Amino acid sequence: MYVCGTHRSGATILGVLLSAHPEVFFAGELYKFPVPTWDPGRRCSCGSMVRECPFWTEVVRDFERQSSVADLRRGQRRYESWEALPRGLIALRLRGQELRDHAARMATLAQAIAVRSGQRIVVDASRSPVRGLIYLLARRQGVEAAYIHLVRDGRTYLQSELSRPGLPTGPSRLLNNAFMLAGRWLTMNLLALGLLSRGRLPYLRVRYEDLLAHPEETLGRIGEFLGVDFQSVVAMVRSRTPIASRHVIAGNRALKQSSTLTLWSRPVPPSMINRRSRWTFWIVAGWLAGFFGYRPRTGAEG
Ligand SMILES: [Zn+2]
Question: How many Å from the N-terminal Cα to the C-terminal Cα in the chain?
């Protein structure tokens, strides 16, 4: 299962939540393997250093029997980085051997994770639709991709980005104003829509706000989409049972501070960004936000 959309859209929460099901494994953003997650000194959510985590050392051993971490990294830089977006898109059209080899390596990693965890669904929350599409080339190896487009209210996304500690200063600060952030939200969601919600690709759009406000219904939709019964997870949410993240190596900061998650249904608080940022967002990306069911004066509507 591949999660696409913008950063800070709640993919870690969704992934940890789904991984409470015995058939689902959540690793985080797999595009960050091997760099930086396999670098010495990085920690796994199980508490061990990643290089000492029994799960990941075995996954990497299995992976390296058929492939190499250095080759995987090379393919990521060649086809998956944002600078390589046009090249990635062209390569996807041409389906050349080199890209197929890269897809095979991605599949080998996903399969090593599935085998070692004993779970048939591996969640990759990498978000880039190009990486998501590369998985399609690994069908022959038995890997089937299903796409969840996770959408979060753009105003909350702006708020989360603008209030990030240690915001860059100098020229890169320009990339973090309301206008640029609204543009990024628009671009990421349009790419996910344009590339993945077409043809016969298995695609499901989920709003993060619906996951928070109506977890039972939203998990029901996801379960139907994946062919998994999430009743046991719904029961955990209902009883507010903390859900442990097992071996997540690339999630968000909240997860690094605590390795469990408790979710309960709650209304989504309105965004706290100032009026100007709110209107900037609405002018740049309001039409798409409206299409997703967000309204200018309120939050998410059904
Ligand atoms: Zn671990």
Answer: 25
Backbone torsions φ then ψ of 270, nearest 5 degrees: -65, 155
CA 60 to chain CA centroid, Å, is 21
Distance (Å, whole) CA 133 – CA 201: 10
Cβ–Cβ under 8 Å, residues 264 and 240: yes
CA of 27 to the centre of ligand 1 (A): 10
Tally of residues, the chain:
302
| Distance, CA of 251 to CA of 47 (rounded, Å) | 14
Q: Give the residue, 94 or 163, on which the prediction is more confident.
A: 94
Query: What spacing in Å lies between the alpha carbon of 55 and ligand 1's midpoint?
Result: 6
Domain count, the chain: 1
Q: Enumerate the β-bridge partners of residue 4.
A: 127, 149
Contact 280, 274 (CB under 8 A): no
CA 247 / ligand 1 centre spacing (Å):
4
What is the model's pLDDT at position 124?
97
- Distance from residue 289's CA to the centre of ligand 1 (Å): 38
Site of tokens 């890997």: 143
- Determine the distance separating the centroid of ligand 1 and the alpha carbon of 245, expressed in angstroms: 9
The answer to whether residue 56 is domain-embedded is yes
The reply to whether 269 falls in a domain is: yes
- Give the CATH number for residue 131: 3.40.50.300
Q: What is the pLDDT of residues 230-266, one digit of tens each?
A: 999 999 998 989 988 889 988 765 565 566 777 766 6
Tell me if 299 is assigned to some domain: no
CA of 56 to the centre of ligand 1 (A): 6
Q: How many angstroms does the Cα of residue 295 sit away from the middle of ligand 1?
A: 41
